[in-house]
Amino acid sequence: MVMIEIYVTYLIIATIGICLVNYWYGIHALHEKPRVKRGMKIPPLVPSLIPPLGTLPLKMLWNPRGFVLSAKHLLWNSRPVRARILTQTLYIFQGTETIGSILKERSLSLFAVHAILLRRVFGLPPSALRIYAHDNSGGFPRPYPESNVEPQNRIEYLIRRTNQRLLLGAGFAPFVKRFQSTLTERLQALSIRSHWVKLDDFVQLFNNDFTASMMDALCGKYLIRQHPNFAINLFTLDDNVWKMLVGVPRFLAPRAYAARDAALGALKDWNTWAREHFDPAAVNSDGDDPVWGSKYWRDRVDAFQQIEGFDADVIAMHDLAVIWGMTTNGINTSFWTCLEAFKDQELLKLVRAEARACLISESDVKFDIDRLLHQPVLQAIYAETLRLRINGFFVWYQSRGDLNVDGWHIPNKNWILTTPMSGHMDPEIWCRGAGVDHPVEEFWVGRWLKYADDGQTLIFTTEMAKGAWMPYGGALHICPGRYFAKTMIILGMALMTTLYDCEVLADEKNLRMSMRTFGFGTVGPVGKVSVRIRRRVL
Ligand code: HEM
Ligand SMILES: *[C@@H]1O[C@H](CO)[C@@H](O)[C@H](O)[C@H]1NC(C)=O
């Protein structure tokens, strides 16, 4: 026993020691002149003495956001660095300009990340993963010249093409229109009357009702009607995404696996039902129909069916993955914006006035969406929430030859990592001018507002951001769902504040950000958010 204790103590001291030495070396290397090879600079390596631990200090595990915000030498550099994690080398790029250059690199891709997530989090079997491993044709209409993959197996392109049609192309306007009506109906129909009632957890309203409205708009009404727990299961899986990603086995995470099984089962059932009940005559002029909900799914099924090994299970896994990607960030952001609006009475007045000005019809609470999206305070809340609540990384793999990014050499087959968090939390950017009295951690909409030349009219401005605000990525690597996300978040806030009064009862400490899904985008709060809520008389 004593021997074991001594041994463990020794291990702990050695590990801490190695971390410190590592860190010191790392900092040292960063201040030296970078090595130059054939005219290109090599990002300095933050040395790693024990490869299994890499260079990531342990703080990353217990306070990842704190680590990112304090890791000045790793994530706040204007110069790129290299870090080793396990057997992989990460090229870490920071600074608005450098990130800007990276985002213009066409050959970088999320595709490898997709494959890993599909495998680990959504359970994709090796037979289907083969399609991913073989597809080297890229995400653009014209396949890369070196590629010889069959046209029907161009999975990266087929997924990108269908996403783009839905979110940036012909599918977008009808999708928004459906969502406006499903969300309005659902929020109006909440069983909340004109006297105060207590909700134990405001978050659940977003997880359930916002998600359900989005599913109704995206896949028709069958899914949620037949499988009312779909949204809960989706968020249970989301909350356990790290466990799944690192491969925690089923017996150690039974709830997460059960939630995934149930969600996949629901999607499979809906798919089967939709195939049986689809009626070409019911397709409207936009190409959508009430059974599949949207042309999006028909296009995907048509394409997936031509790929070897893509059976009903594999299709359901893809569907769950994309639904997860399309919902969690926007829904969590919706929650935070509503919370901010309800917490501050002055702000709430402005929000309600701006929303009211966009009402086309009071009786069915119909807003002019286009006008709503241009209201200054609504936009400021949206932008400030994303600035503060994003806890994400952009990670890309590149496999089409060495890269030269602003003179920095990145050899082929490596991972590139950046994060918008440092830029979002940089006092040099956000605390200038009128922002000087408002620390970066503070939610302050003034950063995004100014008066027009007439001195009266409030306008939304991104002047202060100086390009550092990038929750969605940018250039060639930008979220295709950003317009939908903005619509959902601003419409959600307009509807909630117009329909309801709400007082936050929860302790501030419950409202701190949860780190359970750190790295994937907008997180939720750590604790339950109790509120009292009542219907407003319009
Ligand atoms: C606040 C909410 C959101 C944030 C912060 C966000 C952020 C991002 C980011 C950073 C990417 C990676 C871009 C890249 O590296 O290429 C991404 C990808 C994507 N997003 Fe979003 N997103 C949000 C909401 C949405 C919504 C509401 C939808 C759809 C309705 C959506 C659909 C997608 C899709 C389909 C991709 C995959 C693109 C691809 O790999 O081809 N996102 N998002
Ligand atoms: C947001 O994300 C978390 C994971 O951090 C999830 O469990 C939570 O319930 C989500 N929902 C909202 C509305 O914040």
Outline of the structure:
This protein has 538 residues and is an alpha+beta fold. Strand 14 (449-451) and strand 15 (458-460) form a beta hairpin.
Features:
538 residues, alpha+beta, 2 domains, five-stranded mixed β-sheet, three-stranded antiparallel β-sheet, globular, binds 2-acetamido-2-deoxy-beta-D-glucopyranose, iron, transmembrane helix, Cytochrome P450, membrane, transmembrane
Describe this structure in words.
Heme binds at residue 479. InterPro entries: CYP450_sterol_14alpha_dmase, Cyt_P450, Cyt_P450_E_grp-IV, Cyt_P450_sf. Its cofactor is heme. The chain is of the alpha+beta class. It folds into 2 domains: 2-92, no CATH class; 128-535, Cytochrome P450 (Cytochrome p450, Orthogonal Bundle), CATH 1.10.630.10. Helices cover 49% and strands 13% of the residues. It is built from 22 helices and 20 strands. A 5-stranded mixed beta sheet has the order 3-4-5-13-10. It starts with a helix and ends with a strand. The model has no long low-confidence stretch (mean pLDDT 90).
Specify the CATH architecture of the largest domain: Orthogonal Bundle
Ends distance: 72 Å
Q: How many separate structural domains?
A: 2
Taken as a percent bin, the fraction of beta residues is: 5-15%
- Name the shape in a single word: globular
Task: Indicate the CATH class of the largest domain.
Answer: Mainly Alpha
List the bound ligands: protoporphyrin IX containing FE, 2-acetamido-2-deoxy-beta-D-glucopyranose
CATH superfamily of the largest domain: Cytochrome P450
State the CATH topology of the largest domain. Cytochrome p450
Q: Round the Cα radius of gyration to an integer and report it.
A: 24 Å
